[in-house]
Amino acid sequence: MRASLLLACGALALSAAGAVACATSVNNGTEPLPDGGGGESTIPDSGTPAVDAADAGDEASVDGPPCSQAGWCVTALPNVDLMMKDIWPLPGRAFAVAESPTLGVKVLEWDEAEAHWQYIDDGTQNDSGLGRWVGRLWAPNENEIYYGVSPGYVYHGTRPAPGAAWSWKRYRLGSSSSADPNDGNPQYWQRDELARTPAFGVWGTSSGDVYAWFKDTIYHWTSVDGGAPEWAPEYVAADVDASSEQLFFLGAAGTTDDVWFAGARSRSRAGCALVVRKTHAGYQRIADGVLPGDYYAACAQRAGALLIGGTEGWLTDIEAVATNQFIALKGARDVVRISVEGDGYSIAVAPVPQTVSWKGLNSLSTAAGNLWLGGAGLVVRGTDVWDGGAYELSTISLSGGPLGRPVYQVRGVSKTNLWAIGVHYALHKTTP
């Protein structure tokens, strides 16, 4: 295996475009509430009025969607105490999962024609012992959706057509039997801050080719020995080097014959990037590292695996951007590009400078050739970062007051259909 390391810093620059936060218009029911226990450190709003807790169950409403200078517009959530955790946009609609201290885990659908969010779950995800947290979701089309919920269940929803009632089925994954309620929702150090990210989710290449991951195990929805389809475990990453070490899968991307899974080898405050690839030949460990201890230190080369350089830490997000080319977020700071070159791989690293964001970043998406990143109350836009381009802030502030709350996910399908979601808000960008 051959690997080359390219550092693509370029002329990385900070835009002077406005504040970095998202504050909403005053007393209109859409203003985010203070973080109600999401597990992340937050910075209090500066001079931004709070919404009365008694209004947390009322529907949020706006007199026309207020938008930021960069075109990020507020959408009215059914309840203002929703912590929007993941979103999957499609043309004309989007699906999202959220956590709420009053409602538990909720599943929502956005209808663009109606400009309206509504709940579509059946409520069973909050049965006794369930619903402490939610994993990642995926939707192959507008009438089908998958998501994971603690302590290790995959939900599959279907409907015959838009507007029809949803039917839901629930499946328990085989390795999700721990008594720890946060098993599968591990903590990690994100640039000196303790955060959580679910090592649990679903993704597929089509309705008939669907994968799930939980902790260190990858599952495939498939028929075993000619029987009915089930979540069959296909790969387990259990080769720990110490009792304090764990391996996690955190995301997936690819095509039918080439699926990549991103994750981490982790101990306390230390972490190395982990990448596993599945082709027609089976599963192969592409990237890994050796942790020298439990605290911050450079990962060492592991025999037979690619070592991804740059900021040390977890590989928390991955997307396919072209045939045999993927990008991922590493160490809450670096965007890495992994390219297949013959029988080997090349790595390019494009770090986000602290002049753009000194806080850790936690999500990554591409749309129409642009790179989008989400973090603590901000969205970062990257343009040609591999060829001397720049990162800049994409203004999501409506009134100029700082928010300091996480953007849990940025995701889009085109330059006119982008979402940034987080603690008590969902922002939609429909302009280039």
Beta-strand residue percentage:
over 45%
CATH topology: Methylamine Dehydrogenase, Chain H
What would you call the shape? globular
Which CATH architecture is right?
7 Propeller
Average of the residue pLDDT scores: 84
* Number of E-type strands: 31
Rounded to an integer in angstroms, the radius of gyration calculated over CA atoms is 21 Å
Task: List the total number of helices.
Answer: 0
* CATH C-level label: Mainly Beta
What separation lies between the terminal Cα atoms?
41 Å
CATH superfamily: YVTN repeat-like/Quinoprotein amine dehydrogenase
Q: In which range does the helix fraction lie?
A: under 10%
When the domains are counted, the total is 1
Q: How many strands, what sense, and barrel or not for the largest sheet?
A: 5 strands, mixed
Point out poorly predicted stretches: 1-62
Q: For the largest beta sheet, what order do the strands appear in spatially? A: 1-24-23-22-21
**What structural class results from the helix and strand content?**
mainly beta
Oligomeric state of the chains present here: single chain
